[in-house]
Specification:
Strand 2 (about 25-30), helix 2 and strand 3 (about 50) form a beta-alpha-beta unit. The longest helix is centred in the C-terminal third of the chain and has 22 residues, at about 270-290. The chain has three domains: about 5-50; about 60-175, Uridine Diphospho-n-acetylenolpyruvylglucosamine Reductase, domain 3, CATH 3.30.465; about 180-290, 2-Layer Sandwich (Enolase-like, domain 1), CATH 3.30.390. It has about 300 residues and is of the alpha+beta class. It has helices at about 15-20, 35-40, 75-80, 85-90, 90-95, 105-110, 110-115, 125-130, 150, 230-235, 245-255, 270-290; strands at about 5-10, 25-30, 50, 60-65, 70, 135-140, 145-150, 155, 160, 165-170, 180-185, 200-205, 215-220, 230. The strands form four sheets. A five-stranded antiparallel sheet has the order 4-5-10-6-7. Helix content is about 35%, strand content about 20%.
Length: about 300
């Protein structure tokens, strides 16, 4: 049974935010794959809920004339994976969210919920870090602000959202996906229906000759208290040729930037080994996807 005070179903964005203002302790709910579990366990019992499912303006994927992709927060993982715009421009994101839970979770869970939960293991988060995603946030006074996803995470389970604010869009500009090839690797204790022990996303852009790395982006989930980029590792291979020694330097440098913890899922030492191995593998695959050939 679910112990709920109320569950409101607004039909537009302004109504949703107004409902939150009148019920400050209410929680926004989209797919409910995390919130409802906590309600049933008693952690959030009695909380009023505000469902976002009846708001069309919070769903869908589009692209504007400048090539900026817009993903609305109540878009489900399954919809993202199979959407033609994602397949064409952001295949790594489609790959990442297709590893969330099982089919039932992916059909219900949403990318906005995955981000706003603030958990470091979110499969979409580290991937979006490598696309330099920008988040649109709206408030009850109709004000709107844009924040980089790297600045959205304040700590474990803590994100930069005010009492009546709501994530309303995720933007990825053309300059952050055009010419890039990426790969995401999730290591988990089981092959499905499990959260990441470590998640690793790598995005690379090669020069016209496919011999030089113009830019590399590396992000992890569960390598620290929040999803994180590794700028030092990125700098090591920027402007360099595609070599085994470069791959090694990339993964070795990543070790100096992370701070994983020991948990019942894995020890810190094991996660550090995963950081080294997965960053190497993800970069290698991203280079292959980008048409590069590794030299000894």
């Amino acid at each position: 049974m679910y112990d709920l005070e109320i569950i409101a179903e607004p039909h537009n964005l302004l109504e949703a935010i107004a409902t939150k203002a009148s019920h400050p302790d209410a929680l926004f709910i989209a797919g409910g794959t995390d919130v409802l579990i906590k309600v049933r366990e008693g952690k959030l019992s009695g909380k009023p809920l505000i469902s976002l499912h009846q708001i069309p303006e919070l769903k869908g994927i589009s692209i504007d004339e400048a090539g900026t992709l817009c993903i609305k927060p109540v878009t489900t993982f399954s919809h993202i994976t199979y959407h033609p715009l994602i397949k064409k421009y952001l295949p790594m994101l489609g790959l990442a969210v297709d590893q969330v839970g099982g089919p039932q979770i992916r059909n219900m869970g949403t990318i906005g919920g995955n981000i706003c939960n603030g958990v470091t293991s979110a499969d979409s988060a580290s991937t979006l870090f490598t696309y330099n995603a920008q988040l649109e946030i709206r408030d009850r006074d109709a004000s709107k602000r844009i924040i980089a996803i790297q600045d959205f995470y304040k700590g474990p389970g803590n994100v930069d959202l005010g009492p009546t604010e709501l994530l309303t869009a995720i933007y990825i500009t053309k300059e952050n996906y055009e010419g890039f090839a990426g790969h995401y690797i999730k290591y988990a204790m089981r092959n499905a229906m499990d959260i990441a022990t470590l998640g690793c996303a790598v995005n690379v852009k090669l020069d016209a000759t496919k011999q030089i790395i113009e830019e590399a982006r590396l992000a992890f989930g569960v390598a620290g208290p929040v999803p994180m980029r590794c700028p030092l590792a990125e700098a090591v291979v920027k402007g360099q040729q595609l070599t085994i020694s470069g791959l090694t330097a990339f993964s070795q440098t990543a070790l100096t930037e992370v701070n994983p913890r020991t948990s019942w899922r894995a020890s810190k030492d094991f996660r550090l080994q995963l950081v080294k191995e997965l960053s190497h593998r993800a970069l290698l695959e991203a280079l292959h996807l980008g048409g590069g050939v590794i030299h000894d």
